[in-house]
Write a structure and sequence with these properties.
The chain has about 150 residues and is an all-alpha fold. The chain folds into two domains: about 1-35; about 65-145, no CATH class. It has helices at about 1-10, 15-30, 35-60, 65-75, 75-100, 105-120, 125-145. It is a multi-pass membrane protein.
Length: about 150
């Protein structure tokens, strides 16, 4: 399965999929599988940490001032960004709950991420968001089935 995923990543020209798959293959074939539970338990947190670090670099290196932040936050795009952040974190929390209750759904998220990368030229930074959107849509689908 990992080799197939590697090939999909190569065809899709997705460095993220190729790199992640190669790392997992190296871990698997070097008998370091003891790392799998650690990656499964803490990998998401580590990924989110690096994502947050990359987002905060302009603030840390002085490219963005407190004045810029204030002026942008009170503008219409800034207010929409605050609202978007609040909605996104709420959906992420619902996604995390869904992943705990229904962990096999992760395969659908991976497939959806791959399809989004290949056909929509997306960037797979939101597995929790994908789960959150799925959690949001599930009750709607259940209601439509009745």
């Amino acid at each position: 399965m990992l080799v197939a995923l590697l090939l999909v990543g190569i065809v899709a020209q997705s460095n993220l999929i190729v790199t992640a798959t190669c790392i997992l293959l190296v871990i698997k074939f070097t008998n370091l599988q003891v790392l799998f539970p650690l990656l499964e338990k803490r990998g998401l947190e580590l990924g989110l940490l690096f994502l947050m670090l990359s987002i905060l670099v302009p603030l840390a290196n002085g490219m963005v001032s407190v004045k810029d932040i204030f002026l942008n936050t009170v503008s219409l795009p800034g207010i929409l960004a605050v609202a978007g952040g609040a909605v996104a974190t709420h959906l992420n929390a619902r996604g995390l709950t869904l992943l705990k209750v229904d962990p096999e759904i992760v395969f659908g998220m991976v497939l959806g991420s791959i399809l989004g990368i290949v056909f929509l030229h997306g960037v797979p930074v939101g597995p929790l968001m994908a789960a959150g959107i799925a959690a949001l849509l599930m009750p709607l689908v259940k209601r439509l089935r009745r």
